[in-house]
Specification:
Blueprint lengths: L3 E2 L12 H7 L6 H7 L3 E6 L1 E6 L7 H4 L6 H9 L3 H12 L22 H11 L3 E5 L6 E5 H4 L2 H4 L6 H16 L1 E2 L1 H7 L4 H13 L4 E3 L8 E3 L12 E3 L10 H8 L20 E6 L2 E11 L8 E9 L5 H18 L4 E7 L3 H13 L1
Parallel strand pairs: 12-13
Antiparallel strand pairs: 1-3, 2-3, 4-5, 6-8, 7-8, 9-10, 10-11, 11-12
């Protein structure tokens, strides 16, 4: 994948854990924190906030070196010149800290993006790559420290490519992860802009690093990675995070799978079509359905229940067959999360079949 998008929503599990479960099945829950502690991963703004291989750190330094247009920072810079440097000096002297350690807030904290001056200073230094961060397990807060304390010297001493060379490498990585994609697919992967990348893609086609192709039903040219292989069949059944690289680009979802998806977390409950936290279902080589999922960790006297309030199929999908395929996946997910059982609700065309399949699987 190359990029694991981070999201704080925890109604089921932290979203960044789900792409690994989709690919590996049950695995140690501390896999990402352990890799970060070992210096194999670092966090940066790539496809939104993301875990990224430390081996790719040099490919993002051109962005770190840029002056950004973040109005909160420039407002702070004008009001309190030298404050950001003071925050950096404190980290150098005292070691890791969180935004809360700076105690800059005046008044009650709001619900969304309510950053005080200390948080703004830390996020500016984080963007510039001067400091990096790891996540605190107890509350998911970023714990900031000097980058040289968090990443191996072998990573930080790697030569820094110029911006076009780094962008080209990111485009190639995106093409490798996608197999085939349009310009917009490739740029979206690492949140690059289209215009500076357009001539770079032409260069990659010219030197044979990418192959320009036409995909049936697509209106725009596509680019195939030379190492991409078409499997004879795809035997898969996986629950995908809304932020999984397979489905995070909504336009690509619709072009590839005919699958229309919108996150409904921020939609008022009466207006939700599928549910609060809905996971697309990969079955074979298509997105065949979606499940509304929730981990009720207090249910059954604290033993916990994996709730499936809604279960839906896409047009033309065999409901019973998909339900049978999903039953072991749900049981595995529940066990991995330390939940005692699966409970399927009544919403959706697959609800009855999935409830029966899950009950049958549990009895086996």
């Amino acid at each position: 994948m190359g990029v694991i998008q981070i999201d704080s929503v925890n109604v089921l599990v932290r979203s960044q854990e789900l792409p690994l479960f989709a690919r590996l099945g049950p695995h140690p829950r501390d896999l990402i924190p352990a890799a970060t502690a070992d210096g194999e991963l670092f966090e940066y703004w790539v496809h939104e906030a993301s875990h990224v291989p430390s081996a790719h750190h040099h490919l993002h330094r051109w962005q770190m070196a840029r002056d950004h247009k973040w109005s909160r920072y420039w407002d702070l810079h004008q009001r309190r010149p030298g404050f950001v440097d003071d925050v950096l000096r404190r980290i150098e002297r005292e070691g890791p800290l969180t935004a809360g350690d700076l105690r800059e807030r005046v008044g009650k904290k709001g619900q969304w993006w309510d950053w005080d001056d200390g948080k703004v200073a830390l996020e500016h230094l984080f963007w510039k790559g001067t400091i990096s961060a790891r996540r605190r397990a107890s509350d998911f807060a970023r714990v900031y420290d000097l980058t040289e304390r968090l990443l191996p010297a072998s990573v930080l001493t790697r030569p820094t490519p110029d911006e076009p060379a780094a962008r080209r490498e990111l485009l190639l990585l995106a093409a490798r992860h996608h197999g085939v994609g349009t310009l917009e697919d490739l740029t979206d992967y690492h949140r690059q802009k289209n215009e500076p990348c357009r001539p770079l893609v032409r260069e990659l086609v010219a030197d044979g690093s990418l192959l320009e192709v036409q995909v049936e039903g697509w209106t725009k040219p596509a680019y195939l990675h030379p190492d991409a292989r078409l499997p004879r069949r795809v035997d898969a059944c996986a629950l995908l995070s809304p932020f999984d690289p397979v489905c995070w680009h909504r336009d690509r979802n619709e072009r590839l799978f005919g699958f229309h998806y919108r996150i409904e977390i921020y939609t008022p409950a009466p207006r939700r079509k599928f549910g609060y936290y809905v996971l697309p279902v990969l079955w074979g080589d298509r997105l065949a359905g979606r499940l509304d999922l929730k981990a009720d960790r207090a249910a059954d006297g604290g033993e916990g229940v994996l709730l499936v309030p809604g279960a839906f199929t896409e047009p033309g999908v065999d409901v019973a067959q998909l339900a049978d395929a999903l039953a072991p996946e749900l049981a595995s997910l529940a066990t991995w999360l330390g939940l005692a059982r699966v409970q399927v609700g009544e919403r959706g065309d697959m609800a009855c079949a999935l409830a029966a399949a899950a009950a049958h699987y549990a009895r086996q």
